[in-house]
């Protein structure tokens, strides 16, 4: 029996769409090979991040050729790749098999205080997004389609190739200790699209990247960000997986939230917070609330007070993010001083928060911004 992947009918199946057990079944039942071959293929693609079957020299030549005839090993075609002036951030724009465009970002953080150095990949889960948040470049572009599991996993594999290569060259130069090649350490589902609106493929991508024989990104180093789809938050709580959940709140009351986030009319704050409380109860894990600061819209002290009242006593942490202005959005960035005043006010309610420093502003690293730029100049359509 052949296991179907989500590849469009006129294209070869994407081998990265398979989970480990699905790949095993495919290799045994369709290719008539041993389980051991499935393990070798998985490791070559997910751990060593080899881009094409031909280069998987642990496999016999005939099998490599058969794999190449039947499957796509890498569903992404790079259209653009930028590095920020300070070298901390890479951003890539990819074309998928059917021409859709998605973005992926790699952010490098050096060690600070108790936190180790890390490399975080920000992945997209949909081409476009249907939810229309007014400050978001992706939301302004509308929904195109769901990404498959393999299209999500391949974004991390692409960045892993870069991360591993630079780790290895640092070891060679003596700037890094032998044995400290770690590649990508963290993954955030904060790129284009709403991950909980592509629930199955997102969860299966999380399981693939978490696999110990593959990318082996620890569950506690994976963060999923949602616009606040209340029923799916409760469903996620039942998954028994130790990932972090971030919820885009962005306002302390329904009137303010509905102005920028249309989803608030379907799941208003009381319904959303009920789901969040259930999540915390069921998982015993804190929730991260994201709060994009939009000048004069939601960043005044009265907003901080209401937010403090709303979240007081809950196991949570607030990330305050000065907005990355988009080409069409009317919003301005809140000043650092105002962000800190907001934070102080929250502290009075015992609500912990961090002002997040945005990376890659000079390369449009904000969600959906690179695609917007490329489509505006109709560069990538060719
Ligand atoms: N759809 C999910 C995940 C992708 S967006 C969500 O909305 O949570 C990831 C985060 O980036 C969200 O918190 C989103 O509100 C935020 N974001 C979107 N546009 C932004 C902008 N222009 N500046 C700063 N953050 C933005
Ligand atoms: Fe979609 Fe998230 Fe952007 Fe809102 S912020 S439009 S949910 S990607």
Q: Can you describe this structure in just a few lines?
A:
This protein has 382 residues and is of the alpha/beta class. Helices cover 36% and strands 17% of the residues.
Structure characterization notes:
By secondary structure, the protein is an alpha/beta fold. It has twelve helices and twelve strands. It has helices at residues 20-30, 35-47, 61-70, 137-141, 149-172, 199-210, 230-237, 254-260, 269-283, 301-311, 336-348, 369-376; strands at 77-83, 89-95, 101-109, 118-122, 126-128, 143-146, 186-189, 222-226, 244-248, 287-293, 316-322, 353-355. A ten-stranded mixed β-sheet has the order 1-2-3-4-7-8-9-10-11-12. The chain has a two-stranded antiparallel ribbon with strand order 5-6. Helix 1 crosses helix 2 (35-47), helix 5 (149-172) runs parallel beside helix 6 and helix 10 (301-311) packs parallel to helix 11. The longest helix has 24 residues, at 149-172. Mean pLDDT is 91; it is low at 373-382. The site of iron/sulfur cluster (SF4) has 11 residues, from helix 4.
């Amino acid at each position: 029996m052949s296991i179907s992947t989500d590849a469009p009918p006129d294209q070869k199946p994407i081998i990265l769409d398979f989970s480990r057990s699905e790949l095993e079944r495919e290799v045994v039942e369709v290719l008539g090979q041993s389980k051991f071959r499935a393990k070798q293929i998985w490791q070559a693609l997910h751990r060593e991040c080899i881009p094409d079957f031909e280069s998987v020299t642990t496999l016999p030549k005939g099998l490599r050729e058969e794999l190449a005839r039947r499957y796509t090993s890498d569903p992404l075609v790079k259209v653009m790749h930028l590095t920020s002036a300070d070298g901390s951030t890479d951003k890539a724009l990819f074309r998928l098999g059917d021409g859709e465009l998605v973005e992926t970002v790699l952010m490098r953080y050096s060690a600070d205080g108790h936190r180790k150095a890390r490399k975080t990949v920000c992945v997209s889960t949909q081409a476009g997004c249907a939810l229309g948040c007014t400050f978001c470049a992706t939301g302004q572009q509308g929904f195109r389609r769901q990404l498959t599991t393999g299209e999500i996993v391949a974004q991390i594999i692409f960045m892993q190739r870069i991360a591993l290569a630079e780790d290895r060259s640092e070891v060679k130069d003596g700037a890094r200790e032998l044995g400290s090649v770690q590649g990508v350490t963290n993954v955030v589902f904060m790129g284009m699209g709403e991950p909980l609106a592509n629930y199955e493929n997102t969860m299966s991508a999380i399981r693939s990247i978490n696999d110990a024989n593959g990318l082996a990104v620890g569950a506690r180093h994976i963060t999923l960000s949602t616009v606040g789809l209340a029923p799916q938050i409760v469903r996620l709580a039942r998954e028994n997986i130790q990932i972090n959940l971030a919820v885009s709140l962005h306002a302390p009351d329904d009137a303010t939230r509905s102005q920028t986030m249309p989803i608030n009319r379907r799941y208003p704050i009381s319904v959303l917070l009920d789901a969040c409380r259930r999540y915390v109860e069921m998982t015993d894990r804190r929730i991260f609330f994201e709060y994009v600061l939009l000048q004069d819209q939601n960043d005044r002290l009265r907003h901080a007070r209401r937010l403090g009242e709303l979240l007081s006593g809950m196991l949570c942490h607030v990330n305050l993010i000065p907005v990355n202005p988009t080409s069409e959005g009317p919003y301005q960035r809140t000043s650092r001083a105002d962000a800190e005043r907001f934070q102080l006010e929250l502290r009075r309610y015992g609500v912990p928060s961090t002002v997040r420093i945005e990376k890659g502003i000079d390369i449009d690293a904000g969600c959906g911004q690179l695609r917007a730029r490329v489509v505006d100049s109709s560069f990538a359509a060719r």
